[in-house]
Amino acid sequence: MAELVKDVVCGMEIDPETAAGKSEYQGTTYYFCAEGCKQEFDANPAKFVGGGVAPTGEAPVEAPVAAATEENVKLNVDRLKQDKPIVSEAFAAKKIDIVGGIYDLATGKIGLL
Ligand SMILES: [Zn+2]
Fold first, then answer.
1. CA of 101: how far to CAs of 42, 70, 105, in Å?
2. How do the domains of the chain map onto residue ranges?
């Protein structure tokens, strides 16, 4: 018996060999129980893998941590903007911009806030 995989759209356990559809996203192959699930995934893969809230509610741990991290960076950026007069004046005059960055371990990308 083949190992079952989860259809990330509806949460159903399916056999990859008999799956109605499959899609590759960020180097991973995802299988779907029906063409409709595949189309929904293709339209917005990020909604179903990483970043978003898991539709099954099985892995909601990362979202609050990411939100807290983002909030922390925003607070630090705000503090920097008002820190030294030379910085806050330059910022007010739009000579400089102050941004925060979050390094995403999963994608290796830095997201600017
Ligand atoms: Zn499905």
1. 28, 9, 13
2. 5-47, 62-112
Tokens of 104: 């995403």
> pLDDT digit string (tens) for 32-85?
999 999 999 999 999 998 754 445 555 555 677 778 888 888 888 888 878 888
Q: How many CB atoms lie within 10 A of CB 9?
A: 19
CA–CA separation, 53 and 1 (whole Å): 31
Q: Cβ–Cβ contacts within 10 Å for residue 43, how many? A: 8
Cα 34 to ligand 1 centre (Å): 5
Q: How far is the CA of 24 from the centre of ligand 1 (A)?
A: 16
Element housing 24 (H / E): strand 21-25
Q: Residue type for 84, please?
A: K
Is the Cβ–Cβ distance between 6 and 55 less than 8 Å? no
- DSSP-derived pairing of the beta strands 5-6 and 101-103: unpaired
